[in-house]
Design brief:
It contains 13 helices and nine strands. The chain is an alpha/beta fold. The protein folds into two domains: about 5-120 and about 240-250; about 130-235, 3-Layer(aba) Sandwich (Rossmann fold), CATH 3.40.50. The chain has a five-stranded parallel beta sheet with strand order 4-3-1-2-9, with helices on both faces. It has a four-stranded parallel beta sheet with strand order 6-5-7-8, with helices on both faces. It is globular and about 50 Å long. About 45% of the residues are buried.
């Protein structure tokens, strides 16, 4: 049994905790031992992306301290996974944590990536009787090179019809603090993405990044759209018997 440590992004922790529970549910279903290190905090991405590297550095060092002994770290966010794997080595290049940053980065995986590339599972026994389209989040697509992995998982969901939306690879406009600094541009990009989701005829637009989904959810609701957003993990966690989704996740201090 592989021991998996959950790395839960701030958006999930504060706004959509059910996504974290669904990730744990799916990982348990394939035989993983799942733990949640309580000492974890933000990975430091907002400060890093805004240019405040001196503020981001101690957050990154704390993250490494919390997860340094983890066998595998799984995260339901392409952007947060990218931060640890791709940008920690640059951020901590002159730090005493430089070597550990590179080592840990190789053990941190986005959720769909872990299932398909590490464990080699594409059929999770999920059931979701709806039409679903998929938004390719920027970090997952361009930094982690994840395109087919989430689609492979979706195509094995029972009762679900998968449809591609036009321009699925275009940014939704969120971009973290970009949405704050350039609100009108962000909203315009989000409106275009929402329109593409509607054109697909889907009931739901799925993604591997909760921040993109929150951005799109607000725009779709403002449009009074029938399309709703859902994280990939929340589709894969659903079966004909959903009792397993109510189980709690064991907490671990520093592992």
């Amino acid at each position: 049994m592989q021991k998996v440590s959950l790395f839960i992004p701030c958006f999930v922790d504060q706004l959509t905790p059910e996504v974290g529970m669904d990730v744990a549910c799916v990982l348990r279903r394939i035989g993983c031992e799942v733990v949640f290190p309580e000492a974890q905090t933000c990975c430091g991405q907002p400060a890093f992306n805004t240019g405040y590297w001196d503020d981001a550095r101690p957050i990154a060092e704390r993250f490494i301290g919390v997860f340094r002994r983890a066998e595998a770290v799984v995260c339901p966010s392409g952007s947060c996974t990218t931060m640890v794997r791709n940008f920690y080595p640059e951020l901590l290049a002159t730090s005493s944590f430089a070597h550990e940053a590179a080592s840990l980065g190789r053990r941190v995986f986005e959720f769909s990536e872990f299932l398909v590339k590490v464990v080699g599972v594409t059929d999770l026994g999920a059931t979701f009787p709806h039409r679903v389209t998929f938004h390719d989040a920027c970090h997952g697509l361009r930094e982690l090179r994840l395109k087919q992995e989430p689609r492979e998982l979706l195509r094995h969901v029972r009762g679900m019809e998968f449809v591609e939306m036009p321009s699925s690879e275009e940014c939704c406009g969120f971009g973290g603090t970009f949405a704050v600094k350039f609100g009108m541009i962000s909203a315009g990009m989000g409106d275009t993405k929402a329109g593409n989701a509607e054109v697909s005829g889907a009931d739901y637009v799925a993604s591997i990044d909760p921040s993109c989904l929150l951005h799109l959810d607000g725009i779709l609701r403002r449009r009074n759209s029938r399309v709703r957003t859902i994280h990939l993990a929340s589709i894969l966690a659903r079966t004909d018997n959903d009792t397993e989704r109510t189980q709690t996740v064991p907490k671990s201090p520093n592992i």
